[in-house]
Amino acid sequence: MTDNLFQTYALNGTLSLKNRILMAPLTRCMADDELVPTQAMADYYARRAESGLIISEATIIRPDGQGYPNTPGLFTPAQIDGWRVVTDAVHQGGGKIFAQLWHTGRVAHPHFYQGSGSSDVMAPSAVGVEGSVPRMRELTYQVPKAVSAEEISQLVQDYAQAAANAIDAGFDGVEIHGANGYLIDQFLHHDSNRRTDEYGGTPENMSRFALEVVDAIAARIGNDRTALRVSPGAYFNMAGDNRDRDVFDYLLPELEKRELAFLHIGIFDDAMEFDYLGGRASSYVRSIYSKTLVGVGSYTAETGSSAIAADKFDLLAIGRPFIANPDYVELVRDGKALVEYSDEMLASLV
Fold it and tell me: How far, in Å, CA of 218 to CA of 223, rounded?
């Protein structure tokens, strides 16, 4: 039984979702060469408007945040206008949509932002990550520059401006991407944060940038429109460290005080366990954080429904099955078979 997935849910008592099924952010690299959303993207998202909430593909806040080809932005008038076509299409279908705001940090590549005035790769510390850019494997990652305090202040302002741009573009709110080894997450893990100033060394200092971004965005657009994705368990573009738990032991209660729209676990498979978290990332977060929590990571409608019933989280985010099944919500509601996802589907918009 999956009846609880089709209950309405009020985010922070304000935004009402028509069901508890969220479309997870899915990096599709669908924007044009100016990082402007296309009509095909508007059609793509509109077909999935039956979800309780769509979280957009990760959207970069400024040019040097780009680490993948054709990922959309939210920092130029043309990009804002392009996203407005998308949000209008979703709203016309009765849906709601948050923009996921993104800076990739040390996995950005200057190839994408040559001519923007910057050629640096930005990160908490000058510690690189091995590997190459997905979809463009000829581009290998570079050793980043450790950002200065002034540059951190500018990044906070740029996140807040991107959030304001998202509201101008018609989004119902934003999810800050603070997970999966990207910039904010890089401040939260010892593998990538070797700083000794007020942004490193202690749980409070390592949490500072994430909380400054959250507070700046909430001040700009409202805490009820502000959400955050986090990855307490390091597993993607990041090595784990037993000391990381202390950082999240500090961060999560601070986030709870801020009455966010929701907190979203950033993990590809929630069956993964982390020794320093005592098990699953979602179980660890739920043990500390009592507000609205979004679970994700290889759940089916049935296993997600059971997890919600067991109070493991409140909302279920579905990823790849939404690529294969634009009508995922209707199929689950009607008990019909789903089309199985395959990697070949990434090459087309449906």
Answer: 4
